[in-house]
Amino acid sequence: MGEQQHVKFPQGVIDEYAALGVDLPALFSAGHLGTRMGVEIVEASAERVVGTMPVEGNTQPYGLLHGGASAVLAETLGSVGSMLHAGSSKIAVGVDLNCTHHRGVRAGLVTGVATPLHQGRSTATYEIVISDEAGRRVCSARLTCLLRDVNPGDGEHIRTAAG
To answer: 93 has which bridge partners?
Structure first.
């Protein structure tokens, strides 16, 4: 779980990051927290990011999907979209996350789809819809990221995180 080998990125984006020596699938993975939670990103572009997460292992005491787990999935997907929109010269940093939980889920896999509401020069906002295996909406989320310039010290951290 958490492996990012099946992520589909636009070829131009892959080429942009490869020229910088950055492994794009590793950079835009779910990260350490997402990996522990079983988040898998299956499609990624600035216009649409899709990821899944198992309910098992991510529940609260009543046996339902934990709202915080939905928030992790939402922030992961929205952040990936924001970074892809911003390009390799910027870093996306989440500044606001709002989640509304509509129904409980006890088992299976949930799927999140992030689409942009705003793609600016300094901020990006994504709507993330999380659904159960029957296609019923479980959570609606909105993430706004600040898009800031990469600082000289960020480059090494990005390359280290990517591989």
So the answer is: 146
Helix (H) or strand (E) holding 26: helix 24-27
Asked if 128 and 113 count as a contact pair (C-beta separation under 8 A), the reply is yes
CA dihedral 115, 145, 5, 20 (to 10 degrees): 120
Q: Could you give the CA distance from residue 135 to residue 120 in angstroms, rounded to a whole number?
A: 31
Place of tokens 């997402």: 34
d(CA 7, CA 26): 10
- Which pTM does this prediction carry? 0.84
User: For the segment 89-106, what is each residue's pLDDT rounded down to a tens digit?
Assistant: 898 999 999 999 999 999
Position of tokens 């706004």? 144
Are 20 and 87 spatial neighbours (Cβ–Cβ below 8 Å)?
Answer: no
Residue 75 a catalytic site member: yes
Q: Which amino acid is at 81?
A: G
b/e sequence 145-154, b meaning 16+ C-beta within 10 Å: bbbeeeeeee
- Report, as an integer, the average pLDDT of 137-151: 95
Q: Name the active-site residue from 75, 127, 133, 156.
A: 75
What is the rounded average pLDDT for all residues in the chain? 87
